Amino acid sequence: MRRKELRTLKRIYATPAMKRIAQENKLDNPIIYKYSWRTYTYSTKYDLMIRCQSRGKILMIAMFFPRDVAKGFKYPTYEIYCNPAGDEYITRERDSSDGREIRWTKTQVCNLNRINTIRFFDYKPDVKIRKKTIWQSYSGKDEIKQFLNTNRNGIEGLIEYQHRCNLRDIKRIEKKEQEPWDEELALTPSILPGFERWSKHDAMEENFIFYESIHSSTGYCSYCEKEVPLIKPKRNQEGKCPCCHKKIIFKLRSKIKGLYTRTVNTYCIQKIKNGVIIREYEVSSAYRNATYNKPDWSFRECQRTFMYADGRIATYVYTAYKNKYMRFCKQESALPYEYYRKKNKLYTRNLSSLKKTVLRNSAIDLWTNLPCNPARYLYIEKGNPVVEKLMKINLQGLASEMIKSCYDKKLLNQNETELAKMLKIDNARLKRLKEMTPTIMTLRWMQYEKMVNTIWPDSMISEFGQNEIKISELNFLPKPIKYLKVYNYIRRQQILSGETFKQTFITYRDYYCLAEQNKWNIASTQISMPKNLEQAHMNAILFSRGTSIKDQTEKLEKEWPLCNKILPDLKKYEYSNNEYSVVAPVCIEDMVREGIALNHCMDHADFYYDRIQQREAYPFFLRKTNQKDMPWYTLEVEASGNIRQKRTTGDNQNPDLEPAIPFLYEFMEHFKQVMNAEEIKQGIKADKKRKEEYKKLREEQKKVWRGKLAGQLLADVLEADFMQAI
Fold it and tell me: Which of 190, 256, 360, 534 has the most Cβ atoms closer than 10 angstroms to its Cβ?
């Protein structure tokens, strides 16, 4: 419909009868309707007046408001033009006082200004009230129904018609959007013959052996898909299949109600015209007792990525199109999103046949486990040729880091073609790099070695690189920095302390900075490189905070006077073996020194001292037997003998604690054995109080705000750290 032609149509005006009705529109008895806490009062009979007339193929509907008609205004506020032949409509808004045109709109009648507030569209009042609020002749209502071919008459028929027109417009727009998608999706070839079998069999990480009872001599292997010999299987225990040697879990058939495997994402790459398509599938299975040998498989294609020789990329995801129905929809981003928790299983049996396509220079077939999804890998590899070259000389770890890390223009020289020059090193250093397990940091150290024109041991470069120690992190040392000397010193101290290389380096850096702050003579080797770094580090901490130890101790003794009376009683709980010892503090000062030495909260957190006075929990120090004076881990032991917390430097737990776990269970057993009757009662009370505390923390959703555990629920952290005596 053209607006110019619609303006020439004969207008519809308010009639004298309409004016009379509008002037008599007030109700003698206002209608009051209550809904919930709201009250609706209606003092008028009509909210809207409608006239309609046909103009050839056009139905013209004029809408008046009684308040305007009562004032003598003859012009309608809205003129709606409907063309059933073309399934179209348009509304002209006018000034009812003088007929001046205001605007044209495609807004539905129920959303027009002033109309959207009348009782007809109010869902709260009674239906009987709503039906009588719009004035229109019976013939006019029927004309709308017949002319527009609707099931309803009047304004309801108009709403039905407009909704029908909108649906047609939406379908047309959707078809226009989907047509190029469908053309591209039509390029998808049929699935590879062996891909589905490979996805359901080889790509699955979870395999099981189902058996009848503990006395069963055979069981069904989900990987072998046959009966295999067994010897005393244990339910839910991990093992290996004697035939296929795959890692499996034993499952008792009678106990299987519903066993569901984790979803595995598998990929296959297929040739298309002028490119390839990367297809992603989600694969999972469900086992039940009756069908353990015939699982229910879910094999669903969820993503397609088209990659063309000219560089074009398009990704389609199987999802709900505008929340209506499922189909492949084009993604705004050309590359699929990367979820690093997903394990990318690529079907490789057809890759050799794709070497004449866009994969002709790709090293994707050399990977055992791709670091990202295949589409993203191919895109990155094309833009960063060094990845392909690294894979071809078996430097998979370095190539993987290149893909996962943010692109650094200064790291590589992309203008070169030789690998050594691309890496900004020479062939001799490239040969050395092959002998290591290099990371990007390893490469940076080797680049720096070349820049300063020296040769460092491979062990030094590898150690610094593997522990992600940047060159700039050694800038705390005086220039010129003797890197090899520092490396050898850290290695000696690592062996002495039993810590990791990284932790030893951090300790040394911390000690050196403290020594500078304490104004010690760091020019002396005895000061700058002490024989016992851990002891020197603790001494530096205590020296720097010597005055604060005394002040903090006195403050805590005033606030918690009973602690110094209770702590000496803990000596009876001390326990040792050849490797480890649990030592009890004898006073508050011991706790303050422990907190300062390990840089955690024991030297200032009131709740530790409150729990001591309440005889709810007590502090203990975990030491290595040959170094009882050296702070290592701090324990908080419940009055019941259970260990609530075990923390070292900076409130952390390091891998070095794992070997000591059996000893801690021995200590808890010893703790329970030496408890008297009164202490047992206190332990029961403390156990109950701890459970209530964890419950409250979980209800309040309190989180850890600092350190490595920042963002996690405090209740989860505490429960994970909790150890219960056997």
Answer: 534
For the beta carbon of residue 383, count every other beta carbon within 10 angstroms: 11
Q: Where are the beta strands (DSSP E) in 234-312?
A: 238-240, 247-252, 259-260, 264-272, 275-287, 296-308
Same domain, 320 and 289: yes
For 659-668, what is the mean pLDDT? Answer: 91
- As beta bridge partners, residue 298 has 284
pLDDT digits (tens, 9 = 90+) for 560-606: 999 999 999 999 999 999 899 999 999 998 898 888 777 777 777 78
Across 539-568, b (16+ Cβ under 10 Å) vs e yields bbbeeebeeebeebbeebeeebeebbeebe
The mean per-residue pLDDT over the stretch 375-404 comes to 87
Q: What count of Cα atoms within 13 Å lies in the side-chain half-sphere of residue 677?
A: 0
Q: Give tens-digit pLDDT for 169-219.
A: 999 999 999 999 999 999 999 999 999 999 999 999 899 999 988 888 899
Whole-angstrom distance, CA of residue 99 vs CA of residue 101: 6
Question: Rounded to an integer, what distance in angstroms lies between the CA atom of residue 223 and that of residue 201?
Answer: 7
Of 256, 165, 188, nearest to 219 (Cα)?
Answer: 256
Within this chain, do residues 386 and 347 fall inside the same structural domain, yes or no?
Answer: no
Strand ranges for 157-274 from DSSP E = 208-211, 218-221, 226-229, 238-240, 247-252, 259-260, 264-272
Which residue type is seen at 630? M
Question: Are 204 and 281 members of one domain?
Answer: yes
Q: Which of 188-192, 518-522, 658-662 has the lowest mean pLDDT?
A: 518-522
Which is nearest to 547 in space by CA: 557, 537, 535, 555? Answer: 555
Domain containing residue 28: 3-168
Residue 518 near residue 540, CB atoms below 8 Å: yes
**Domain annotation covers residue 10:** yes
d(CA 192, CA 156): 55
Which helix (H) or strand (E) segment is 452 a member of? none
Same domain for 316 and 379, yes or no, is no
Q: Phi-psi category of 433—alpha, beta or left, where left has phi over 0 and alpha has psi -120 to 50?
A: alpha
Distances in whole angstroms, Cα of residue 648 to Cα of each of 500, 597, 635 = 14, 10, 9
Query: In 416-474, at which residue ranges do the beta strands (DSSP E only) sit?
Result: none
* Residue 506 included in any domain: yes
Q: pLDDT (tens digit, 9 = 90+) per residue, 262-275?
A: 889 999 999 999 89
What pLDDT score was predicted for residue 12? Answer: 94
Residue 603 token pair: 């030297």
For 211, half-sphere exposure in the C-beta direction (CA atoms, 13 angstrom radius) is 23
pLDDT at residue 164, as a whole number: 93
Determine how many CB atoms are found less than 10 A away from the CB of residue 36: 6
Query: Which residue in 208, 181, 447 sits closest to 315, CA to CA?
Result: 181
